[in-house]
UniProtKB/TrEMBL annotation:
CDD domains: S4, TyrRS_core. Residues 349-411 form the Tyrosine--tRNA ligase SYY-like C-terminal domain. The keyword Transport does not apply. It comes from Aeromicrobium fastidiosum. Keywords: Aminoacyl-tRNA synthetase, ATP-binding, Cytoplasm, Ligase, Nucleotide-binding, Protein biosynthesis, RNA-binding. This is Tyrosine--tRNA ligase.
Amino acid sequence: MTHVLDDLEARGLVAHSTDRDALRAELSAGPITYYVGFDPTAPSLHIGNLLQILTARRLQLAGHRPLLLVGGSTGLIGDPKEAGERVMNTRETVADWVERIASQVSRFVDFDGDNGATIVNNLDWTSGLSTIDFLRDIGKHFPVNRMLARDVVSSRLESGISYTEFSYVLLQSMDFLELNRRHGCVLQTGGSDQWGNITAGVELIRRADGKKAHALATPLITKADGTKFGKTESGTVWLDPELMSPYAFYQSWIQAEDSKVVEYLKQFTFIELDEIAQIEAEHLEKPGLRAAQRRLAAEMTTIVHGEAETAAAELASRALFGRAELADLPEATLAAALREAGAAELAASDRPTIVDALVATGLADSKSAARRAVGEGGAYLNNERVTDPDLELTSDLLLYSTWAVIRKGKRSVSGVSIA
């Protein structure tokens, strides 16, 4: 059986680690307790957080016990950003986001058995902590010159950084110390952008209690041009279906670049590496089929949203281009798909026609171009060819009395909502 550390390395999930041999020995000696933390700085987690959750899941499947920390106290401050000071959210907002994120992370791990997961909140050990005790017990272990040397701090010295954000590293380090004392936690995982905070926790455990702890960081997931993966033209790829529909989530993976799709399959899915090698070979032979992207999108949408939403997203992808029945789509999926395709809104009182819809969606530059498209047989309403440019989009022609799929040619598709 493959050692979990070897599997993580083979999947490209190890950017940094403390003493690799010591960590391997610790993992081999028996089940360990480890943790990964999430600050509630938004109402939902995103793709970058998902990588951390799935890494925690891999370690749990190998027999180790996860602690999933949601930062009720660190979320009130926020990790320093290179761009400037964070805006602090209210206590009520952070408390609400703590509940949301705790619910999200709970879906990806098991809570039963000897290595069942535990959700922890760092507000539990900071809310009653006095400033004097914090400075005496924690602050004394942090040399200021080391804190000033941190990249994110040094980059902000000229523009300015508050003492609040400057001190964030002390709070996160204290989390590791507390979890070590309370739960015997000996490993923290996280993204490579958190490496300084994670290793500071390892050092605090050594200085405060004379114990050895470990750290492991995953790489920053990027696109081929080096920009952060998980950002789209419309914004961040969220895990919450209220912020990003399952269809839009599915499409974000379908759009993965050819040069990166195999990397994402290794890092984000639980497909065995031998099978991924077969997928890669097929992809290299016929990249135009985008079979690797379709597999990636299906796997990830199932992991995050379930099989039913994956099936609906796949059906919508086919139906918009006439390869499946539009009538079989749930209205929520149809609406999400059309919004993702740039749907326009038209007023029923204006009695819009197919020409108006082609122009409103941007599928035609002008009404004359729209009429020409209809005349040449290249305009479609709900996958049916339209021959009359004056066809009015009445409610009986609409899906769910509201939506219309508008297509020009084989590949250009959008939609309208009419109310």
